[in-house]
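Supplementary Methods, section 5.1.

A reviewer requested that the exact input to the structure prediction be made available. We therefore reproduce it here, unchanged from the version used in the analyses.
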Amino acid sequence: MEDTACIENRTFDEIQVGDSATLVRTLKPEDIQLFAIMSGDVNPAHVDPEYARSSMFHEVIAHGMWGGALISTVLGTQFPGPGTIYIDQTLHFSRPVGLGDTITVTLTATRKFDHNRHILFDCVCTNQDGKTVIHGTAEVLAPSEKIKRPRVELPDVTLVDREACYQDLLNRARGLAPIPMAVVHPCDKESLLGAIEATKVGLIIPTLVGPLAKIRAVAAQEGINLGGLALEDAEHSHAAAAKAVALARAGKVAALMKGSLHTDELMGAVDDASAGLRTERHVSHIFLANVPTYPKPLLITDAAINIEPDLKCKADIVRNAIDLALVLGIVEPKVAILAAIETVTPKMRATLDAASLCKMADRGQIAGGVLDGPLAFDNAVSIVAAKTKGILSDVAGQADILLVPDIESGNMLAKQLEYLAGALLTGVVAGARVPIVLTGRADTAETRAASCAIALLMAHAKRTTVK
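The structure derived from this sequence is encoded token-by-token as follows.
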């Protein structure tokens, strides 16, 4: 029986002409990405699906030397194995290797040279249809001494593909007409570029609201052409917020996006009892986090508006998040109500609120999703952790929505996922008459445009107006 915990060679004397060894591998997208990162070869035939579709092969294909590396793997790890020195290699590439292709590498010893311990190998790589994709020869200096070593465990590699997450959001919005959006006080580089990027990809028709002299100065400094864009002059940031809200109340815009003003300035205008955009619900912020180590998008709420929400407010926060999840195509979203522990105790208000929210869902007061809590964070996102603690739940380990106890815990959780786990964070405010893209000062233009895609989906779904 093969010892998979060790790696062992075959010496020159042990190998006979006609002996062979094989390796089977299936090409996955991450194989191409890792090879491109390692080699620096970003030929669009390998890494750009749109270009690849127009190429002679009509699909993304593997780097030719990915197959060549598999030959090297056989030589260096099993046949002959450790102690082998590469001398020469000749390869011919017969046909491309596409995603999902299963390649069988077969190396056969064809000649041995006793005077220098060289061995010549015939190398053939075939695909799942038995067709040859690579063939050639390899010459090596074979080891003379037997070597057996513990197999080194390589570290796990997680690829952070922010561009893919961004494109996924754009694809969700593809085919929908752009929405008119008021961009409030876009008086710095990123907020102005965010509006331009969202316009360029067909998400919004912007109206820039703010001090026009400042907006034009930023545009001139960054080389941004404002031609064709609607502009609304406002003396300062407070006035810009009020004017943008008025445009939304009048039905002239279908969404708002925060520029370089403080959140409380914009939300103060939104929350105004007589002239704002309030509904019967509390407004709340929802982060959409694409985390490389989690198999699906996570909605985190509320990490930006409600500081210490009470039970009534939390119920609205959950309703807003469920509505957004449904807009994003998540059927019956699973809501994990977070706390420090999984048991209900009067000493922790978060656990009492969790129990109450679950009972409200049982009574039909919160609809559209499945609620469970209190749940600690690990039990919400890890089935293994939940099973270890004996938690039986339809939500534990597979949450779509994380309801945090307060703004501090939510903000820290979201920022930790962004800066330590490579998550792409986008976000919107729900519960008002129109969706509001509430960006942070450090958010890039790309992040702002991605958030606009969510606002567009919400506006088209008409799920933000609560009667």
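The chain has two domains: 6-150, 162-461. These observations are discussed further in the main text.
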